[in-house]
Amino acid sequence: MSCLKPENATPGKTGPGGLDFNPFEVMEPRSPVLPPKEARNGGRVKAADARPAGLYLPNNNIQTPNMTSPEYVQLSTAAALTLGIMPGKMHRCGCTRCLNLLLTYPEGCRANCAYCGLARHREAERDYADRNFIRVDWPSVPMDQIVDIVAQDPENSPFHRMCISMITHPRSDDDTVTVLKNWTSKIDPATIPISILSNPTTMGRANVQELRDLGADIFTVALDAATPALFDRTRGKGVQSPHTWKKYWEVLLDARDIFGKEKFGAHIIVGMGETEFEILQLVEQLVEMGGHSHMFCFYPEKGSLMDHLPATPRDQWRRVQLGRYLLDYCGAKVKHMKFDSEGRVIDFGLPRAELDMIIDTGIAFRTSGCPGKFAEDISACDRPYGDSPPSDIASYPFAPADVDLRRIRAQLDMQKPGETYEEGDDLEDY
Ligand code: SF4
User: Fold this and answer.
1) Is the peptide bond before 52 cis (omega within 30 degrees of 0)?
2) Domain residue spans in the chain?
3) DSSP labels for 387-423?
4) Which of 90, 91, 353, 411 fits a disulfide with 390 by CB distance 3.0 to 4.6 angstroms?
5) How is the chain split among helix, strand and coil, in percent rounded to 5?
6) pLDDT score at 11
7) Consecutive 10-residue runs of the chain (430 residues): their mean pLDDT?
8) Cβ–ligand 1 contact at 74 (below 6 Å)
9) Residue 7 contacts residue 14 (beta carbons within 8 Å)
10) What is the Å distance from ligand 1's center to 166 Cα?
């Protein structure tokens, strides 16, 4: 049996106080402050009522136009580059395989999640369409323009999947349907499958069914927090936000019933104060239900209520990434793993040779999400640098090269005999 020794993991280099994990006590969000009255509910944008003119790049120096879904959507910077509507290049990535769309309104998301750049409390400082989300800007574009570009040649599109991300807004259920119909009117969902990143707080079972009937392939629920206490602290009453663990689970169970095995999943953020044991138990629960887990490494998003807190130490992140992959795709069980008194994995319950083989494929350390056209365990949703800077990659948006695997094994404290890695080796090669 293999045995990891977190107590030996580079003290002082990894997390708060030299710890190689983010403890619950440390990960306390700030309390939100009420924005001035004129800034609430998109007040500035509505008052100026500037007309949009095609693509809008987030820019805090001009008045944000009055754009709204379903006519307008936001899309990730990676998707805008891949679509060819924005100039630029990404470190070590030619394109993204997932066209991530986000509903948009002057009022923005009405929730206040502590780790999120789109949260309501930011009304005081940035208009909605100017806010950063998972570390990047999200340009706004007319939905028709996106559909027209992709519909020119869907079979040869770089995109292996399209995803509509809902936000918490009274119109988001209806507008998701309209955006979905707009897409499927010109693009066959069998050619580019569709995922829905849902907003359970405004949804019922009938909404889930309708999206399935209209051609959505996979339905995901962003639990984000791994335990009920963390959920409440970061997405519920703790930050004056409307979400509840109970409602999220209701919709997740609806998705299991309606979309079926392998066609539903949950997003989970690693390192917000849960233990590795707790998060891997949740991963296993999802596997037993027939679903998948999509992992994100906590990153202190600028402007969020958690931007003063430490990013997830890479030691913790790698252990959870590997544990999740073993549970999700290799038949591993939590009961065969061993954990220390802090809930850290000290043994994955598999022979070392088998673990080495799995680590060497690198797939466990790639971005996790809904699959594309390469393999069931390779996510189309590669979210380049959505949870880390390129200088310290958490989720690899490409197949890790040899130098990346040496770095990963060093972070896991599972180096091969004689193998070395110096911080920055991976940057020198590219
Ligand atoms: S519901 Fe989603 S978009 Fe809205 S604040 Fe929470 S995490 Fe951000």
Assistant:
1) no
2) 6-428
3) SS-GGG-SSBSS---HHHHHHHHHHHT-PPTT----T
4) 91
5) 35, 15, 50
6) 35
7) 37 66 96 93 94 89 92 95 92 91 95 95 91 90 97 97 97 98 98 98 98 98 98 97 98 98 98 98 98 97 95 97 98 98 97 97 96 93 91 95 96 93 82
8) no
9) no
10) 9
- 54 vs 52: CA distance, rounded Å: 6
Q: What is the pLDDT of residue 427?
A: 82
Note the pLDDT of residue 27.
97
pLDDT at 61: 76
Listing DSSP states for 304-320 in one string gives: STTTTSPPPPHHHHHHH
**Which residue, chain included where needed, has tokens 């209209």?**
214
Nearest-CA residue for ligand 1 atom 2 is: 167
Q: What angle do CA 278, 282, 286 make, to 5 degrees?
A: 170
| Distance from the alpha carbon of residue 374 to the mean position of ligand 1, in angstroms | 30
Q: Residue 14: what pLDDT?
A: 61
Query: Which is the closest atom of ligand 1 to the Cα of 115?
Result: 7
Q: Judge contact between 385 and 355, C-beta under 8 A.
A: no
Q: Report the separation in Å between the CA atom of 224 and the middle of ligand 1, taken as the mean of its atom positions.
A: 10
Tell me which architecture the domain covering 6-428 has in CATH. Answer: Alpha-Beta Barrel (3.20)
